[in-house]
Design goal:
By secondary structure, the protein is α+β, with helices and mostly antiparallel strands. The chain has a single domain, classed as Alpha-Beta Complex (Fumarylacetoacetate hydrolase, domain 2), CATH 3.90.850.10. It has four helices and 18 strands. Strands 4-3-15-8-9-12 form a six-stranded mixed β-sheet, with helices on one face. Strands 6-18-17-13-14 form a five-stranded mixed β-sheet, with no helix packed on it. Strands 10-7-16 form a three-stranded antiparallel β-sheet. The longest helix is centred in the C-terminal third of the chain and has 11 residues. It starts with 12 loop residues before the first strand and ends with a strand. The chain binds manganese (II) ion.
Amino acid sequence: MSNFVFTPSPTVAVPIVGSDKRFPVRRVYCVGRNYEEHAKEMGFTGREPPFFFFKPTDAVVVVPAGQTGQIAYPTLTKNLHHEIELVVAIGKGGKNIKAADAFDHVFGYAVGLDMTRRDLQNEQKKLGRPWEIGKSFEQSAPIGPITPKDHAGDIENAAIWIQVNGTDKQRSNVSKLIWSIAEFIEYMSAAWELAPGDLIYSGTPEGVAAVVGGDTMVGGIDGLETLKVQVM
Ligand code: MN
């Protein structure tokens, strides 16, 4: 029995590989321009301090293993881009976490997509305004199941890739992150208190490109469940 004026939104929860339990999502952080060749394709040098933005929790589209997720083509844009990303799932919170201790705070990893209304993001960049309208819309953060860190293999040297309709679009390696997992956890936890349930989309390599209705994206990272999403 509650006295809410309406039913609260359900908790967004991501399946965990090898478990019946699910990972309840608290916050969704994203790291900007964290692969040098992607920073260059966006017109930057690739060498700058890390920066971050958020997506709302309800941007997360949970895609169970072996299934094809579906996202609606969003409003207002004519240039919806895929960004394939390693997602780091936080299992233990903390402030001012040192890089040397960062992996103690990691629960596991998943394949994610930072879907981006690039035309709107570019307008906001030019105006020096926040990116939310380009980045933080409904269904902009599809994610596959989370693999616990001890079962994810050598994630820091894993291949990361995405194909659209069977054609390679992005293909790189997590080792090319400008700010490594441990480094961005240290940096972020100085700015915000991380907590269990936080997801961190860690940035995308080069090759971002537009998708349209009907396209099927298949993204993978060695050691993790593949993520398959169709644009409706
Ligand atoms: Mn991104």
